Each structure stands twice: as structure tokens, then as C-alpha cells.
Amino acid sequence: MHYTYIAAWAVVGGISIPSDGAQVELFRSDRCRFVLTPNPDIELANLDRGNAVGHLMLKGMFGQSGDADFPTALAAAVEDIKAERTKKIGGHAVLVVEANGVVEASVTGPSREHDGFVVAFDVIDKPTLIRTHSHEVESMKLALAFESDPPSRFSTLTEGVYLTDATGRLVYSITFSMSADMSVSSPLTPESTTRICNRFATLHEISDMDRVQRLFSQMADFKTDRLKGFLSGWAALEILIAKSFKTYEETFLSPLTNAGQPSLRERFLQRVKGVMKDKYRLSDKFLAVAAVLFPDSPDSAVQDDYKTFSRLKDLRDSIYHGDEFVEKDLPVHELAGLLRKYMLAHVETPNPAVNKDAPTSGAPVT
Questions:
Q1: 19: helix, strand or coil
Q2: Cα separation, 226 vs 219, whole angstroms
Q3: Greatest CA span in the chain, whole angstroms?
Q4: Pick from 182-186, 264-268, 283-287: least confident
């Protein structure tokens, strides 16, 4: 059968769309589509109906009333879902993903057919199907969030999967486990849409940054508590710096060979690299990465980044050592801003890890 995976998140901060504005398509492929919209009701209509059926079953209403009563109860349940979601959305824009594919499935157990859809039990493994699209979702969240500083966060509104059979009927696979900060936003412009789409394409192609994207997604989940968000964000930044250093170490050290007796200097440099291979501190790696990514930035700006990085690292270390801290004061936004700056510089600057034909050079973050 054909399956459709739908999910939606309120985008908290960073991007705004007029309440009467049209949806903006951020990306489309044969596999998935992402849109930003002020009102996701149309995109979520089929999923809302499936969730409403599940809610009615949990209430013991499905199958216990006459068929004439069910359409009325279903319509009311759908309206309740929409109203509750509208409260959660508030004035935020909503990111919706619609992904699709084919899965081996058939309705062999108890089922019930209604006008235009079929209800069955445990036809598919929904969590497994959803995980197959996690990379696209996490890449888009990162691409969209990094359009603003500090980056946006995401509050989950709904998520689910439904099937379509050979006759075009929707099949809802029901399981009894189903369930249904202050910030400033700026208008989404056509230029922003283009940047987000291009950024998504780049992030989706960089396979060695999967963990960074996953950790940022955890950090950006609006339901994540502040401590977990801070620790997830720090882990993402630490991985980013460690991986970037492997890419930029040669470039950082190359000026040492650009003088007299280059072969002798190269031999000396290889010896230094061999000795230091396992001895670089994370802060050493940060300095090297910053120097390569921002060669034209004022020294004071890079020094400020280093001070911020060092302060965040000291705080992370003190938390790990069991020192007291005030969770509400954890600088999650500051950490997210630093992660945004260096991740954008890494993926949007031509470098051998992304574009082997381009020289390594710094670029401003937009």
C-alpha cells in the first residue's frame, strides 16, 4: 500500500507569517514536501480524521452507537482536535511535512468500513515508517531554525501515518498507544524561502552531521526542558567543532609551510601533527576552526566567540561535576546562537568536506 506520513510543529520565534497569508512551500521532492503555513487544517485533514477515530474508540463510542450517530460524533471530534491545535499554535507559523512511500501491508484482521475510509488494527509499524523520514525532518528543522538568531524552536502539534489502498480509500491503522519562551519573529520573505530550501539541500547531503542535526532537533523541541536542551545543544556544538577541526586542521596549519624550505617545514609539521594528534583540547580545536571559518572577521569578534565558548564549556563541566545551577538561567539561546553561527559557516562556506572543487575560505553568516 501507499503510505503518507504527516507531522506539524509550531515554529516558536524566528519566522512569522500573516494569519491571512498563503502557505509557503519550502521544499518538494518525490519523497517529501515541506510547507510553512499560518493554518495547517487543510494539510492535516486526513490525519485529524484518523486521530478522531482513535479518540472515539478510546472513549468507547466507536461501534457502540448507531451508524447514523457516528458521522456526527466524528465531525465533532475533528472540530475539537482543530480547536485545541489552534490554541497551541497561537500566532506562530506552522511547519508541515508530508512524506510518502510504499509499504507491505494488508488488512487481514478485524476492520470496519465507512464512507471513504477503512479502520483496522495494527496494520503497519508506524514508528519504523516515521523513523525513515527523520533525517529529512531534522535537516529541515535545522535549515528553518537557522534563518533567525537565536534559532527557532519547535512545538509538536501532531504526527501520524495513514495508508491508501488500491481503490483510493484511506486506511487508518489504529493502535491503542496512539495519542494525539518569549521570542520575536520576522516576516518570511522570498529570499528567506530560497535560503531555507538551499540550506536544507546542503544539510541533507552532509551525512557526517547526522548527530549534530539530531541533537539540535532535541534542543529545539519546545517541550524539552531547559537542562536537556542545554546539554543536547552543547553536545551538538562539541561534535561540530571536533568534526570541523578534522576538515580544517590542514588549512589552519598551512601558512607554516608557505615559506623557505617548504619540504623541511612540512616534515616538521607532520611531526607536530603526529605528536599532537590526541592532545588537542576542545578549546584548541575551536580556535583553529574559528580562524579558518572567519579569516576576515575582526580579532575582537573571534575573541568574543572564544570567551562565549569557554564560558559555556565551563558551565557544562560544572553541571557534569554536580555543582549547583539554576535551570531557568541556563543560556540555551546563547548556546543556540553560537551553534547556528558555526554550523552555518561550516555548511555555507565552500570547503573540501562539502565541495571538493572549491578552496577553503571563510564566509559571513547571513
A1: coil
A2: 9
A3: 92
A4: 264-268
